[in-house]
Every structure is written in C-alpha cells, then in structure tokens.
Specification:
Blueprint (H helix, E strand, L loop, with lengths): L1 E4 L4 H11 L5 E4 L17 H16 L8 E11 L10 H7 L1 H8 L7 E12 L2 E13 L15 E3 L12 H7 L1 H13 L5
Parallel strand pairs: 1-2, 1-3
Antiparallel strand pairs: 3-4, 4-5, 5-6
Helix pairs in contact: 1-6, 3-4, 5-6
Bound molecules: inosine 5'-triphosphate.
Inosine 5'-triphosphate binds next to β3 and α3.
Length: 197
Amino acid sequence: MRILFVTGNQNKVAEANGILSPLGFVVEQLLIGGEVPDLIEPQSDEIEEIAKFKLEQAVSLSMGTEFENEALLVEDSGLFIDSLSGFPGPFSSFVHETIGLSGILSLMSGETDRTAEFRAVAAVSLQGNMLTSTGICRGVISEKISGESGFGYDPIFIPKEANGRTCAQLPSHEKSAISHRGFALKGVSELLNLPSK
Ligand code: ITT
C-alpha cells in the first residue's frame, strides 16, 4: 500500500520509508502539481492538534486530484526539554531555524537535569477515517554537538538506549528502532492493518 507523506522534510520521508517498507508500505512525498502543498501550521501547544489540523488541510487539497483516495500522512514532531518546561516543543522548527543547536546548548549551560524527549504524532487519513499514533523517545541533551547523520536536533540528543551516542551518531536503522518517529509510524501501520479499516 502506498502512503503519501505531506511534508517538506525529505529526511522524514527517508526515515518513514526505512520504517514502513519492511511492513509492506511504500512512502512517497506528496506533490500536487509538482509542489509540496503549502499547509498552514496552526499555533497550538499540542503537536497532536497541529498534526490533525494539517492533515485536514491536506485532505481538502487532495480533493479532486488523482490522490484523493490514497492514504495521506502528516507527522508533527518536536524536542521537549524537561528543565525548560517542555521548550522548544511545538516551536521546535522555529527555534532550530533561529537560535539553532548552539542556542539550545547555551540555554542548557550549567544545567544538570538534561533529560528530554522527542515526540512525534503521526496522523493518517484513509477513506474518510483519521488515525493517529504518538511516539516518544526519552534521552538527554548532550554537552556538545556530535555526529553527522540524521537532521534537526539529532546532533544534540542522546536516546537513553544509545550508549551515549547522539542520534546523529547512529546508523539510520538504529535510530528508527528507538525513535519517536519509529514508534509513531509503527503505531499507525498497525491501525491501518486492522481488519475493519
Ligand atoms: P514538516 O512540518 O514539513 O513535516 P519539519 O521539519 O518542519 O517538516 P516538524 O515541524 O515536525 O518538521 O519538526 C519540528 C522540528 O523538530 C524541526 O526542526 C525538525 O528538524 C526537528 N525534528 C523532528 N524530528 C526530528 C528527528 O527525528 N531528529 C531530529 N530533529 C527532529
């Protein structure tokens, strides 16, 4: 089954394919008229609300196109740092583009509680139904930027199962086995496989 991922982030598409292709799905980026659909990102404290709102927009945009009967996927994710009361959370994209990784490390300077989590909410629409699943990856914020792979906050996030390595130091299959995206996407794949769907 093909799933059309509504995202501007090619890294997410590649990770989603790595996670879902062994489960029998093919993930492709949704392009309408050759362009990534321009979705409004609502202001909300809840990434689940953001994902659902964006999926509703994507469904509307797909109406009347060749994609209207296909499974559409939106995924909203973010980094939630405990000692910063969950910041940057829903503002992760903006914070990454503005103060960046070094800005986060500065905010954490001298902080001994470095615990944090990545969260992802995957929302899929298929034939009028909307299915959602959340994935969480607990870990800590590193003291320095390390690693070359992955994207976004990967060079400063050390998952608790990763033996001290940041996500950017993990091969992609190792990251996906423990990542927020891995758990969220496996969750929706199970819902898509339910006999009633
Ligand atoms: P779309 O909204 O177009 O899907 P995006 O990159 O803006 O793409 P998000 O809003 O979901 O995606 O991501 C929020 C921020 O969190 C953004 O800066 C990402 O780079 C970062 N992020 C999300 N997943 C991540 C991951 O697995 N590893 C590192 N950073 C991640």
